[in-house]
């Protein structure tokens, strides 16, 4: 920070009370609040049908109960999942005590009434009647899931805890040991509260510079080790979610190459340790020995550097203390190292410094040097941001047009509430509190964009889709800044405005100009852009007279937990994850459903109900729309998703971000996913195009680039050199035929509904020697091919080819049918052959060999999840075929219909991501939830658990 804001002797409450008294002396100066959603004389709760529910949340892996609260009260239209998440995450008070909240009414009242009281105390409302309307409108919108505050509001507001309302923090560190140690302390306090923070380490001298004492500086990378260890310790010490942090380094720092390669080197270490037998999976007991895993890393690049990359020119790395050139490097070579490191481990991302600061409203106070962990909040050092997100699908009318008028009024109301919260909020450090109260940075955003576009038959990666998204974003930010200008006329502009008035006005004009020159495609986006233009013009007119109340207004956050609490199909700016979803049912259990936006989109495209029914049935079975009956190929793109058969191309994500960026104060939390086959050059192109298209920040993730996968790779023995022999000896294999009578084992199986039988015969003393696979109708081509395949495998086994050789070749082979099986030990198969050879490995290979290949039984996997040694539950005793035969009853009377076998819990999906894995027949590259064990799904650049609402970063 280059400016000291406020005085340390002033408390937030003290300043607020003085301001309130001053405003109270001018009656009629407050805001008039209009009713939009509520009816005068009727409380919002009276219009809702309430019901009691039991919330019992279990660990998906072992069935243990994580959380239980019975008799909670929610509206009847809230989903079970939203009920579970809000009850377990946001209700305050010890479970089982009278003080524990048990109704959504109590939760909303606790928050909304606090906002109303603070608004009245600080002079926001023209009259008590306006304050009441404010309370009722806010209550109605929250109860009907039209928007949500970020999680800290629900955690803290109205409780005895500090009234922390912000999820995002930016810290500052200088080139001194006192400052570095203070950085560790401040991060620890923020992580302890479950929030995340980011900072730029570029002020710290490089390892190539001297200390005043004569020694050589350690450099920022060395200090990152201590901070990483601290974050890991606090995470494991019982925080509600993993520590989330961002570390930024300027591209001209002399240690930038070491910084770039830091996490990639650690990834190599993880692979080596994994191959040596250590548990290096995410959450494994040995992963803690690896460094730098608790932070996202980003390089701050300048336009000068990017132009040098384009021109293949030299670029100077400069000393931190003097600014002198320490070293000159090839810009393209460094850019290549950045892309290569990102290819290997997804870090570092890029932050485009000149673009960020060109849209900065407070340059006279200081530059923007860093971001929060998810890169959407970009502002001054030692500051924080209060977030809230609108549920866009709630504003889509039955005729598929966007309700501009109600959206405008709703944004006004929510933005007003967000600003009020700063009046009473507490902050983790004094410096952050001073800066936030002086600049009042807010971050209104939205969720469900992907669902809105699909419902209106817009492809996510299309000009029409981008135009609608950009228009809504411009309208949201335009309304927010117009309301900010109105608030400045009522309760005054932010403290730092006078110093930055010219710059702030310039940025407002840039936003307005971007709206006026935006590319329109259809009547709907043109209508919304026109409404947004009117808001920008009105906001500029008021702001040039009164100033603005807030230095920042909008950004697009991940909306992980709150997105689930609002029953959103998609989070933040993301497209839909997949067309088939996992839905929890009342009373427990779950079911697979096709997204409800799919039928609506098909109706919008003109399909008849009979056609829609057939297409939905096809999607439910296949997970995608390709070759769906009656669906025209030109409509496939409307149903493209983030994952699956037709996944959106990487540049489709980048272009969407570029369309929205000019209409946001901050940036966009989003990771551009690339397929495993992507090259380093592909990543270079994404990063280069991000700069050219005017993004502020960009991160990528290449599938399977991280080690934490469910299967471990085989450790290969090194080749051994041999001396050239003088005499060549030719060895020929000898067939060892099976005896006339041999023990065998027959297993019935089902892979994605395709049923078959596997018979494996053994030598009496020496393992498997014969395999027969029955699949398809007798006489069919498939049955014939399987017979021939079985003979070929059987003959090879008798000639001495080891079973493990076939297991290595055929496991993970991918083709249809693929998906869920009825075998509790092999829950998902990539193909029939994948299942067959996994089953054979489990039946005939020793445990040590199977464990090396990552093939375990269900009890062995469960033991591994519990942190136990899976070897303690396995058995390698030979199968007693005689006992098996004698245990099977022989039916001597008329057979009665056999009951349907119960599906083992282990064959079911626990989340939409696991359901997608079942449909695709492959493992999605997402971590398991540390709270409940369910596989998480992407939410911006973080992950969110659909089971319990936990996130891997800031929410």
Multimer state: single chain
Mean pLDDT: 85
Class based on secondary structure composition and strand pairing = alpha/beta
Rg from Cα: 30 Å
Helical stretch tally: 29
Low-confidence stretches: 1-28, 236-241, 709-729, 876-907
**What is the count of structural domains?**
4
* Relative strand content: 5-15%
**Percentage of residues assigned to helices:** 25-40%
Number of strands: 25
Please describe the biggest sheet, giving its number of strands, its sense, and whether it closes into a barrel: 10 strands, mixed
Distance between the termini: 26 Å
CA-based shape:
globular
InterPro entries: RdRp_reductase_class-2, RNR_2_N, RNR_lg_C, RNR_NrdJ/NrdZ, TSCPD_dom
Region (Disordered): 1-32, 890-911
Pfam family, one: Ribonuc_red_lgC
Domain Ribonucleotide reductase class II vitamin B12-dependent N-terminal: 55-145
List keywords for this structure.
955 residues, alpha/beta, 4 domains, 10-stranded mixed β-sheet, 3-stranded antiparallel β-sheet, 14% strand, globular, disordered N terminus
């Amino acid at each position: 920070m280059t400016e000291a804001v406020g005085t340390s002797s002033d408390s937030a409450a003290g300043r607020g009370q003085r301001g309130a008294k001053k405003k109270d002396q001018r009656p009629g100066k407050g805001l008039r609040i209009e009713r939009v959603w509520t009816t005068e004389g009727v409380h919002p709760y009276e219009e809702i049908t309430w019901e009691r529910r039991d919330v019992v949340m279990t660990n998906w892996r072992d069935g243990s109960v994580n959380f239980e609260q019975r008799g909670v009260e929610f509206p009847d239209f809230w989903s079970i999942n939203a009920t579970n998440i809000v009850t377990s995450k946001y209700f305050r008070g010890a479970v089982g005590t009278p003080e524990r909240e048990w109704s959504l009414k109590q939760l909303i009242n606790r928050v909304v009434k606090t906002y109303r009281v603070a608004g009245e105390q600080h002079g926001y409302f023209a009259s008590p009647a306006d304050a009441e309307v404010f309370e009722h409108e806010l209550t109605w919108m929250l109860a009907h899931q039209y928007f949500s505050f970020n999680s800290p509001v629900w955690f803290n507001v109205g409780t005895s805890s500090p009234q922390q309302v912000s999820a995002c923090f930016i810290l500052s560190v200088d080139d001194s040991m006192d400052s570095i140690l203070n950085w560790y302390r401040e991060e620890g306090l923020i992580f302890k509260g479950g929030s995340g923070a980011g900072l730029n380490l570029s002020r710290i001298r490089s390892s190539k510079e001297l200390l005043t004492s004569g020694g050589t500086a350690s450099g920022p990378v060395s200090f990152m080790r201590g901070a990483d260890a601290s974050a890991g310790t606090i995470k494991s010490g019982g925080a509600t979610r993993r520590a989330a942090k961002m570390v930024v380094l300027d591209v001209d720092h002399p240690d930038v190459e070491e910084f770039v390669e830091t996490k990639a080197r650690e990834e190599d270490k993880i692979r080596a340790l994994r191959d040596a037998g250590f548990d290096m999976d995410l959450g494994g007991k040995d992963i803690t020995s690896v460094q730098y895993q608790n932070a996202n890393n980003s390089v701050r690049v300048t336009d000068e550097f990017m132009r040098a990359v384009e021109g293949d020119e030299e670029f100077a790395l400069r000393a931190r203390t003097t600014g002198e050139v320490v070293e000159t490097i090839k810009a393209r070579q460094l850019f290549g190292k950045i892309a290569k490191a990102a290819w290997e481990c997804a870090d570092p991302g890029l932050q485009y410094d000149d673009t960020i600061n060109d849209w900065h409203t407070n340059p006279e106070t200081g530059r923007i040097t860093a971001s929060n962990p998810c890169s959407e909040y970009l502002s001054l050092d030692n500051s924080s941001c209060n977030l809230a997100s609108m549920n866009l699908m709630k504003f889509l009318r039955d005729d598929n047009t966007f309700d501009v008028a109600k959206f405008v009024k709703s944004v006004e109301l929510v933005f007003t509430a967000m600003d009020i919260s700063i009046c009473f909020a507490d902050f983790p450090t004094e410096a952050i509190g001073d800066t936030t109260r002086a600049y009042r940075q807010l971050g209104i955003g939205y969720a469900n964009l992907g669902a809105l576009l699909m419902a209106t038959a817009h492809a996510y990666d299309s000009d029409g889709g981008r135009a609608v998204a950009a228009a809504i974003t411009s309208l949201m930010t335009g309304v927010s800044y117009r309301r900010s200008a109105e608030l400045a006329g009522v309760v005054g502009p932010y403290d730092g405005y006078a110093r930055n008035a010219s710059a702030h006005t310039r940025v407002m004009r840039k936003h307005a100009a971007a709206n006026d020159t935006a590319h329109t495609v259809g009547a709907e986006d043109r209508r919304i852009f026109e409404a947004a233009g009117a808001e920008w013009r009105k906001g500029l007119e008021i702001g040039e007279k009164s100033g603005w109340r807030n230095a920042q207004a909008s950004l697009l956050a991940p909306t992980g937990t709150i997105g689930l609490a609002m029953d959103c199909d998609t989070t933040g700016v993301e497209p839909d994850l997949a067309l088939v979803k996992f839905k929890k049912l009342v009373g427990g259990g779950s079911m697979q459903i096709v997204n409800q936006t799919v039928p609506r989109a098909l109706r919008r495209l003109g399909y008849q109900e009979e056609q829609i029914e057939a297409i939905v049935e096809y999607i439910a079975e296949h997970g995608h729309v390709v070759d769906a009956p009656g669906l025209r190929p030109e409509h496939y793109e409307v149903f493209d998703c983030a994952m699956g058969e037709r996944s959106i191309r990487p540049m489709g994500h980048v272009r969407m971000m570029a369309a929205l960026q000019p209409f946001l104060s901050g940036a966009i939390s989003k990771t551009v996913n690339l397929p495993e086959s992507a090259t380093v050059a592909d990543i270079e192109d994404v990063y280069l195009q991000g700069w050219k298209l005017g993004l502020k920040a960009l991160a990528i993730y290449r599938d399977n680039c991280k080690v934490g996968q469910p299967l471990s790779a085989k450790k290969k023995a090194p080749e051994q050199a041999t001396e050239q022999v003088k005499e060549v000896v030719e060895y020929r294999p000898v067939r060892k035929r099976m005896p006339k009578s041999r023990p065998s084992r027959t297993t019935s199986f089902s892979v994605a509904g395709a049923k078959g039988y596997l018979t494996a015969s053994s030598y009496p003393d020496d393992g498997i020697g014969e395999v027969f696979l029955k699949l398809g109708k007798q006489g069919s081509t498939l049955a014939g091919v399987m017979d021939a395949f079985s003979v070929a495998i059987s003959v090879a086994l008798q000639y001495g080819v080891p079973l493990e050789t076939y297991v290595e070749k055929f496991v993970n082979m991918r083709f249809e049918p693929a998906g869920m099986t009825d075998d509790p030990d092999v829950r998902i198969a990539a193909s029939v052959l994948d299942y067959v050879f996994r089953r054979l490995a489990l039946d005939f290979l020793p445990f040590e060999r199977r464990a090396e290949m990552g093939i375990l039984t269900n009890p062995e996997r469960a033991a591994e999840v519990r942190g136990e040694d899976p070897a303690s539950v396995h058995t390698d005793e030979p199968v007693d075929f005689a006992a098996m035969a004698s245990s099977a009853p022989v039916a001597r009377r008329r057979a009665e219909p056999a009951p349907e076998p119960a599906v083992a819990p282990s064959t079911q999906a626990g989340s939409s991501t696991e359901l997608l894995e079942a449909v695709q027949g492959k493992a999605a590259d997402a971590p398991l939830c540390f709270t409940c064990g369910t596989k998480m799904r992407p939410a911006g650049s973080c992950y969110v658990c659909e089971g319990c609402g936990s996130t891997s970063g800031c929410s």
